[in-house]
Amino acid sequence: MKQIAIIGAGAAGMEAASILSKQGVKVHLFEKENHVAENIANKAFLFPDFSKAADLVEELNNNLKTSEVDLYLGSKIVGMEKENKQWNLKDNQGRDYTVDAVLLASGYKPFDAKRKEELGYRIYNGVITSLDLEGMIMAGKITNSMGEMPKKVVFLQCVGSRDEKSGNHYCSKVCCVTAVKQSIELRKMLPDAEIFIFYMDLRMWGQSFEEMYRKAQEEYYIRFVRGRISEAATTFDGKIQIKSEDTLVGMPLKMTTDLLVLMVGMEASDETKQLAKNLGIQGEYGFMESKDRFLNDNITSQEGLFVAGSCKRPMSIADTLNDSRSATVAIMEYLK
Which pLDDT score is estimated for 292? Predict the structure, then answer.
C-alpha cells in the first residue's frame, strides 16, 4: 500500500486525507496543534450562505474516521529528507516515518494587529480584530470596552494587507467579504446600532459576494466609507476616536465609535515559512511556491513533494477545499 504524509490538518489537509484514503492510500496526517481546522473552528458562520462553521468542521472530521487515516495531534515535523524515491520524516516526539509522497498543507496565520500601533490594538479596549468579533458572535454577546451593547461599530479593511508598513503588499482576498458578512451578523444582533465599513477598494471576488454587498446596504443599512483610518485613540468615556479621510468627497473625517474592528489579513504561518525555507520552495512573503500557477500549481520543484491551500497564498475556505482536491489528482498520478 502506498503511503503519504500530510502536514497540516486544516481544510486542505483534512480534505486531501479523506480523498486519498478512499483511493487506497495510507495517510499519516500531522497537526502541530491539539485540535484540527483551527482557522475554520474560530469562525461562527461562513460566507456567502451563512452556514455554521462548526458543521463544516464536523463533516471534515467525520471523513477522517477510517482505518486508512492516522491523525497525529500535537505532532510537529522537525525533520524531512528524501532518500531515493521515498521521504523520511521525524516528528517532535522522536518518531520516524517513511512515505512515498508528502503534501504540505500548513496554511496561514492571521496578521498580528499589534504591529499597527497607530490603530491601538491591545492598547485601547475598544479596538478588536475580526477574529475577536467572531468570538463575540459565537458567544452571542457583543459588548464594548465598558461591557455595554455598542451603539456604533466601525470596521476597518486591509489591516496587514496592501500595506507598506507591514511589508505585505498583497491582498488577503477574504477580508472585504468577511467584513460584509460580519456587519450583517451584527445588524441582526444589534438592530439599532450604526455600522460603518471603511475601505480602500471593495473586492468581492466570488459568486454571490457582490449580492451580499448590495444586500448589506439596501436591507441591513450598512454604511460604506471610502477611506483609510490613520489613527485611533481612546476618549475619556472609553470610546474610540478615529481619524480618516473620506476620499470620495476629499474631506478629513473624525468619528467616535464604541468598537473599532480591524479586519486582519493572512500571513504565511510560522510552520509554512520554516518548511518552505528548509525544502527550498520559498516564494514571496514566506509562502510556498509551486512549479507554476496554471498546470502545476500543486507540484513543487522536488519530486514527490506537493502543496495545497493557503500555504501558497491567501485563499477562501471554498478555494482551499477545491485546491486540495486538485492536489489529490496530482498525487494519485505520481503514486501510480
Answer: 93
